[in-house]
Amino acid sequence: MSTQVETRPEAGTEPGAVRAVADHLRGYWAEVRSGEVGALPAVAGIIALCVFFGISQPVFLSVGNLANLFGQGAAVACIAMGLVFVLVIGEIDLSAGFASGVCAAVMAVILTNWGMPWPLAIGAAIATGVVIGLLLGTLVVKLGIPSFVVTLAAFLAFQGIVLMILEEGSNITIHNETVKAVAGGNLERWQGWTLLVLTIAAYAALQLNRWRRRVARSLVHEPLAVVVARIMALGALLTATVFLLNLERSANPQIISLTGVPVVVALLGGFFAIWTFVLHRTRFGRHLYAVGGNAEAAVRAGVNVDRVRIAAFVICSGMAAVGGIVAASRAASVDPNTGGSNVLLLSVGAAVIGGASLFGGKGTVRAALLGGAVVAIINNGMGLMGLSAGVRFGVTGAVLLLAAGVDAMSRGRGKLFGRH
Amino acid sequence: MLLELTGLSKRFGPVEVLSDVDLSIDAGEVCALVGDNGAGKSTLVKCVAGIHGIDGGAISVDGEARTISGPRDAAALGIEVVYQDLALCDNLDVVENLFLGREKVHGLILDEDSMEQLAAETLSSLAVRTIRNLRQPVASLSGGQRQTVAIAKAVLWNSRLVILDEPTAALGVAQTRQVLELIRRLADQGLAVLYISHNLNDVFAVADRIAALYLGRMAAVLDAADATQSQVVELITSGRSGSLGLGADTNGART
Among A52, A126, A354, B143, which residue has the fewest nearby CB atoms (within 10 Å)? Predict the structure, then answer.
């Protein structure tokens, strides 16, 4: 993160401040060179893809398509956020896709066939996800069956359960407006702006407070300029996004007006904040990384490793349920293919593209969102170019391979620098 | 005496791994435990650490008999073990490793600043200058630095007896010297150190007393100042050396 040099008191004076920033950047670059690439490949990928598709298909950069991207990527991003927890402890959940299908089917049956209110249906869907996670986690942890096998079996079984719930493959339409609004609704303009202000204010407060505390205790801290620059960069990015999404994007504004930040953006943002907090600011999150890094060390340090691992599976399947709800909401129906076909692979791909490691011990919620964005942009852009599904699968596969390659190489590079 | 073992015995099935072992360690001293492979060094450590139960004899701390039935009991008595494989998480940074399993929290939230400050204080009290950035992942540290982190992790908790299992086995010359200096400083700060090693040069460089195990029996406990390397080698390989060591009537005397 930073080097010792930054604690020098002259950081406040002009040349000192400049040097501190320069030192900080040098420290960051050294980290990147030693294999700690973080979100860099995903961000670079997003920019490159946007430039490419923006030039070849100008409609890609339209406001309407921007809003579309969020809707298209949301379900995969939700599942990927959950998968990060399982990847961090060095396991895999191949059943997350169909788990989302099972949960969506449960919701659809309760909502449409039984006519029950939506909170009950959504609650039941998430509870189903939690139970699935408990079951998978217990099988992996208590019986010691490799997660690859357990979740591969669950992958097949859940596919069958979806068919059974949907009575041999009929599809169930969702009429409830609230549920449909999860993926299809937009916030009012003022709601979008309010959310933006609150988000930036919260982020700035957290960052500045942390900086102030570390200075007060004379711990190693980043130069203030870097902290402020980061807050301003995030603020500018979010403001631009909200501004664009608040523009009219309907083809016929006279008939139907289409403006505002999609509800699903707020949903993704909320889960991002919650899970990032859990992963980086709580004891449980620390223990997840420890289990993924060296389970034996975690055991000796008194960490309840079994409980941590089961909890990771519960979070993963719970987020799969959220992904299932989003997918059902977007399609306004649930069919045997909900959560099927390539959903799981795209989700794992998203997490890995964003920087989570299949070897365990590494991964962030941000990675899932950035990787999800890459996957969504590829599918969206190539769809606009009129390329066939075959080509899209091929390209997504190539990008995933590239991301896994970057991961493996950064490990290799780390070894050169004394990492293990 | 901080730690006193009297008549300690341990069997694995019919095999007697430790029989009637006496050993005492006082605060402020480094006691080296030497012995050939299979002499029972690791078993002895694991009995004190609470990983193995004992089949006979007694362990007393501060003159009080104690039963240590798990690593937590040992930790509560101020006994910490640094195992040969260090048990560090490569993906966590130095502070995170030092506090693993005993993180400081404010309610739900990790108190990173306090932990970092305490880590810095601990390392500086051990006069460790080799680790500059406490927020770098342990994976990027050298072998000696990793050993230092593992030792600091053991002394962070007001521990009184630190047991080190072959801490210098995988280190180069300069790093070995650093770790030996660190061991000496632990003792100078009033901790008791039980130091297990195969390397007699290292043992003589740092130990106050040398305890030699031979086939599960305590052959002799010598003052390092009075002992010679060849004496210790004989004790390790045959259980006796001149007038020292196991009597002719024991199995250990056969050479």
Answer: A52
